[in-house]
Amino acid sequence: MRCLAALLLLLAGTCGAVAGPRIALEEGRPVAEARADGIAIRLEMVPRLIDGLRVAVPVLTVTGPGTATLTVAGRPSGFDNPQGTAEIVEMDPAAPGPEVVLTSYTGGAHCCTAVEALHLTAAGNWTAVSFGQWDGGGPEMIEDADGDGVAELVSVDNAFLYAFDCYACSEAPLKILALRNGAVADVTAEPRFLPRHRAWLAEMEQRLVDYGGERGPGFWAGWIAAKTRVGEGAAAWAAFEAAYDPTTDEGVEACAVEAEICPESAVRILPLPQALRAFMVRMGYGLS
After folding, report:
1. Does residue 81 lie within any of the structural domains?
2. pLDDT tens digit sequence for 136-161
3. N or C: which end of the chain has fewer CB within 10 A?
4. Total-model pTM
5. Nearest 5 degrees, angle CA 189-CA 193-CA 199?
6. Is residue 266 part of a domain?
7. pLDDT by residue (tens digit) across 220-235?
8. How many structural domains comprise the chain?
C-alpha cells in the first residue's frame, strides 16, 4: 500500500523553492522575524476569540518597502503548540518586488494547510490572495517547478484522495498554481511543467514497486491521470482495462446528480471503469 505521508515528503524534496528567508513558529518559538529586499516580516501567535472559544492564531505582519503594511491571520490548528510559516519569495513577476507566503495548519488527520500569498500592488499597497487549503505539504509546496526563477504552489490534486480508495492507498497527479498579475492561475497543464510531471510519474511508479506492486483503484486513478499529464493517457487506460477483473470489482459509489451532499435517492453503485472514466472527464483529464 502506498503511504500518502511518504508521498508528500517525496513531493516536498523534488525541487527547491526560489531562495528567500523563511521563518517558522514551533514549540518554544511563538515569535519569528526576518527581513529581505526592503521587506520585514513578523510571525507570532496571537489569542483570538473564534466561535466563542479562545484560541491562538498565527498572525503575519508585513512591512515595507516604505510605509506599506498588512497584517493577515492564519488558521487556528486546535493545538497548543505554535504553528505557521512565512517566507519572502518571488511568485509574481508583474508585481513590484517579491511576495510573502503564509502557511498555517488547520489540524486534523490529513488536512489542511492553508496558503495565503501577500503581494504588492502597483499603488504600493500589500494585498492578500488565498491559494486555498491543501492536504499536507506546508511551506514545501512553494517551489520553482520549471526553473525560471519564479515559484509556484505545487501539490497533489486533492480531489483524488479518498475518491476511489483509502487515503493511504491513493495516488494523485500534481496540481500547479501560479500567481499572475495578483490572481491565482491553474498552470498545471502548461508545457513548461512537463518535466516536473514526468519526474512525479517516475516517483509514483517507483512507489508502486517499493510497496509491492499492488494496483488498487486508488493507484489506477492517480496513475492514469499522471500519465495523461504527459500525453500517455490512452496507453494508461488500455493498461487498466487489460488488468481489470470484473469478478473482484465491488463497484464505486457515485451520485447521479451534481450535489455537495448526494441525496440517498441519487446514490448509484457503478462498475469501476465506468466510475473512473466519468471522474476523469469531470476532472478534465482527457485520457489522451
Report:
1. yes
2. 666 678 999 999 999 999 999 999 98
3. C
4. 0.88
5. 115
6. no
7. 999 999 999 999 999 9
8. 1
